[in-house]
Amino acid sequence: MNETNNSDEQLRALSQWYEVTTTALSELPYDLSQRQMAVLLTVYMAPPPHTVRSMALRLGISKPAICRALDALSRMDFVRRKKDETDRRNVYIQRTIAGSVFLHDFAAIIRRTHAPEMPVSKSAPNALRGSFA
């Protein structure tokens, strides 16, 4: 019985994530990778200041990977790099209005698709059903 409950919980979680991602793809103007989303959420949810080094340590990924994500997020105007006026070697990552709006809209999608006892989505691939026993 416990394995069945665990399987149902896993399937519900994946079903919810499936609904969130497919809805976001159809409703939002940008398609972020998981790495880009993790970097963006770090900038908006973790206390500043944010640097490439601090985010690499926090997320456990390389500094070049953080830089690539920041490059993409900067092109979307979701974050901005700003040189430290006291030490020009330091570059801080800042929030932008566009990034705040994107995350607000993404959170709205999560809220809409989340229900505590959410049934397994009918649109979830059948391959997932029964695969967590």
List keywords for this structure.
133 residues; mainly alpha; Arc Repressor Mutant, subunit A; disordered C terminus
The largest sheet, given as strand count, sense and whether it forms a barrel, is: 2 strands, antiparallel
Q: Can you list the strand order of the major beta sheet?
A: 1-2
Distance between the termini: 10 Å
CA gyration radius, whole angstroms = 18 Å
Regions with little confidence, pLDDT below 50 for 5+ residues:
123-133
Number of helices: 5
Query: How many E strands?
Result: 2
Shape: elongated
User: What proportion strand?
Assistant: 5-15%
Give the tally of structural domains: 1
CATH C-level class: Mainly Alpha
Summarize the structure.
This protein is mostly helical. It is about 55% helix and about 10% strand.
Structure report:
- The protein is mostly helical.
- The protein has a single domain (2-116), classed as Arc Repressor Mutant, subunit A.
- The protein is built from five helices and two strands.
- It has helices at 2-27, 34-45, 52-59, 63-75, 97-113, and strands at residues 79-83, 91-95.
- The chain has a two-stranded antiparallel sheet with strand order 1-2.
- A hairpin with a 7-residue loop joins strand 1 (79-83) and strand 2 (91-95).
- The radius of gyration is 18 Å and the shape is elongated.
- The model is unreliable at 123-133 (pLDDT under 50).
